[in-house]
Amino acid sequence: xxxxxxxxxxxxxxxxxxxxxxxxxxxxxxxxxxxxxxxxxxxxxxxxxxxxxxxxxxxxxxxxxxxxxxxxxxxxxxxxxxxxxxxxxxxxxxxxxxxxxxxxxxxxxxxxxxxxxxxxxxxxxxxxxxxxxxxxxx
Length: 138
What we know:
2 helices, Staphostatins
């Protein structure tokens, strides 16, 4: 007759066996759908910085334009930190040009609050802004 393994061994084995499922589930969650950004009105938006900097107009096609406002290049790696109904947070890295972390809070389909910080061209940046839908793209 084989001896029964002790309880500590059984708990450890159960944790190790369940680890791949936790990691895979975490990875799927980390990539997120960013559905909140898809629900925003498409078209022209005005971005007003809280520090009084010159406002900026942009054309929004997917809502994802708000994630990398200081990094205009494509091909940056993104990691979804939070993917909620009314708020998303995305961390991104642009190889050779820095990184950023942006939180976007939806107040309505045509109004969002944005907080972002990171490094671009070797220099730190940080800003808070409000973006409002203005109609058609210009």
